[in-house]
Amino acid sequence: MDKSVIKEIGPSKVIQLFFPVSNFHAIVVVDNTALGPSIGGVRVSRDVSVEEVKRLARTMTLKNSVSGLPHGGGKAGIIADPRDTKKEHYFRVFSQAIKDLYEYIPGPDMGSNEECMAWIYDEIGRSVGLPEEIGGLPLDKLGATGFGLSECAEIACPYAGIELKGARVAIQGFGSVGRAAARFLSEKGAIIVAASDTKGTICNPDGFDIKELLSIKEETGSVIHYKKGMVKTCEELFLTPCDVLIPAATADVISKENVEGVKAKLILQGANIPITREAEERLYKKGILSVPDFIANAGGVIMAAMEYAKKSEKEAFEAISNRIKKNTKLILEKTFKENIFPRQAAEELAKERVLNAMAYKKVL
Ligand code: NAD
């Protein structure tokens, strides 16, 4: 088939599941499977919507494609409280409902973790991001995505006129991704000057002792209890004077409402779709370089795909480093050469591989 006739790459399936007896809803989107069965996380949140899951599934298609993985993109959302005491029950019910949807391989996402993936695996024998005891590479514990962000920073910093050693970094969201990014970036000599969670922001222009900050978060549940810093509101994180800003919490946190206040020179998108399209274009015009989510935060899915292919932890870390560094360089070169904004450069590269694979499919 001539790929120029392909108008849309997905979504191929949008499924809404209702469980009246257990009293919860779920959404599954399989965006595209031209490169292989789709992999994508299961988000658990009270307000996850069909639209959000569709956008996240597309991000997975692009991420898996550009990362050279034999997988398409998908995503699921369970509309429930992630702290619900019946979590195991609704994960097991959800698993049975997707048992025959072989083109979707669930992974962890916000509100789900290795234990949840183990429940799914126990029910249907198909999930990634499993605990070590049952053959998994625990990507959150190992900090796969945070490690990938630090590798991305190594390549991207010079393009933004920054030296990574000594760069001041602000991180929104001190969960699995944010904490690991802080740890790996400080090992590379960066200085973490602000971090936030749902309780607020902690700032110290001289930088934190990361080990201390990590243990305060672990012990008290929030970064704001760290005594060696100033406490501010969640939103003030974006106003922090810094070189590198890492949104690592949730979707659409930088929008037209707050984009003008952003002071960073470089943004590495740790979360999925953390910046609206409009704000991303505005950042580009302001001269702030922003590395798109599916390039910068691909560490987790690369490790998940390595686990699925039965590779070792060492091979997974090597794959993350090689692929993220190569892709960051590729898209930033294309951005500067063609004078286009980074997401456009990244989408063109990612879509090319998907379209080439789709061209081999039977036309019905
Ligand atoms: P997590 O649940 O472990 O952590 C999220 C953190 O964000 C928590 O500390 C929470 O308190 C904080 N948060 C939520 N809303 C906030 C707000 N408004 N202001 C400040 N902090 C806020 O989740 P995670 O696994 O770290 O994932 C974070 C993001 O990264 C999500 O968008 C996820 O889809 C994306 N992501 C995760 C991975 C991964 O490997 N875990 C991979 C790729 C992308």
Give structural attributes.
364 residues, alpha/beta, Rossmann fold, 2 domains, seven-stranded mixed β-sheet, five-stranded mixed β-sheet, binds nicotinamide-adenine-dinucleotide
Report on the structure:
- This protein has 364 residues and is of the alpha/beta class.
- The protein folds into 2 domains: 9-58 and 72-134, Rossmann fold (3-Layer(aba) Sandwich); 144-352, 3-Layer(aba) Sandwich (Rossmann fold), CATH 3.40.50.720.
- 41% of the residues lie in helices and 18% in strands.
- Strands 9-8-7-6-10-11-12 form a 7-stranded mixed beta sheet.
- Helix 1 links the parallel strand 3 (38-45) and strand 4 (72-79).
- Helix 1 packs across helix 12 (342-358) and helix 5 runs parallel beside helix 11 (313-338).
- The longest helix has 26 residues, at 313-338.
- The model has no long low-confidence stretch (mean pLDDT 95).
- The structure holds nicotinamide-adenine-dinucleotide.
- Nicotinamide-adenine-dinucleotide binds at residues 109-110, 139-140, 144-145, 172-178, 196-198, 234, 248-250, 270-272, 297, 300.
- Residues 109-110, 139-140, 144-145, 172-178, 196-198, 234, 248-250, 270-272, 297, 300 line the site of nicotinamide-adenine-dinucleotide (NAD).
- One of its GO terms (molecular function) is glutamate dehydrogenase (NAD+) activity.
- NAD(+) binds at residue 145.
- Substrate binds at residue 63.
